[in-house]
């Protein structure tokens, strides 16, 4: 992501206190979506955001701690707290995305022996299945990952048919999508006429994309730059990539399906 900005300056200052926090605890602990008192043979997983957390939960992890609050839409802007470093120091795995390079710095500052795992954050169903299977193998939770995948496949197919049932009479809608929301176009069975981002649309791109006369513009709620194709007549749809604190990845698809149906006038 070309515009990623990373704040590392506070990490070394925090590292001295991390060891103390790891030993005595803190009142400002990262939020956990895992089961309290999970068996010690279960991996302790620290994730940078709820998106990685949802992948970990889908793969069968139970003891999951999220560093960046959901309210921070652009994760690389987050300033780590001492409790974040304490959590990483106790982790077996630290999950991060390629556009979050500060994760390795957090691990180093905390003195953690955790395995740093890069996650391909893309809600395309095929990529989700691949990542969940990979994480399940790492965590030793393959059976749980397979069970989740089966349920995911059933629900995805249902949502796909539901959204396609809302198509206008002319058939599959033509869409322009932000590069990180193309998965939602696939969910809708839409025709992708063009993509933009992650940078703001340039005047040349505006003319090119508007000329394609898309019915819908799929905008990334976490990186929105406002109205993408003004005066084009296209309906702009806000697509959310990150799940909530419950780390339910399937809810992201349900939310997208609802927004897509509304945009097509069939809610």
What can you see in these coordinates?
By secondary structure, the protein is an alpha/beta fold. The chain has 2 domains: 111 residues, Nitrogenase molybdenum iron protein domain (Rossmann fold); 109 residues, Rossmann fold (3-Layer(aba) Sandwich), CATH 3.40.50.1980. The protein is built from 9 helices and 9 strands. Helix 6 packs parallel to helix 9. It starts with 10 loop residues before the first helix and ends with a helix.
What brief labels describe this structure?
2 domains; 5-stranded mixed sheet; alpha/beta; single chain; Rossmann fold; 4-stranded parallel sheet; 267 residues; 9 strands; 15% strand; globular
Q: Output the CATH class name of the largest domain.
A: Alpha Beta
Poorly predicted regions: 1-39
Largest sheet: 5 strands, mixed
Continuous helix count: 9
Overview in brief:
By secondary structure, the chain is of the alpha/beta class. It has nine helices and nine strands. The chain has helices at about 10-25, 50-60, 80-90, 100-110, 125-140, 140-165, 180-190, 205-210, 250-265; strands at about 30, 45, 65, 95, 115-120, 175-180, 190-195, 215-220, 235-240.
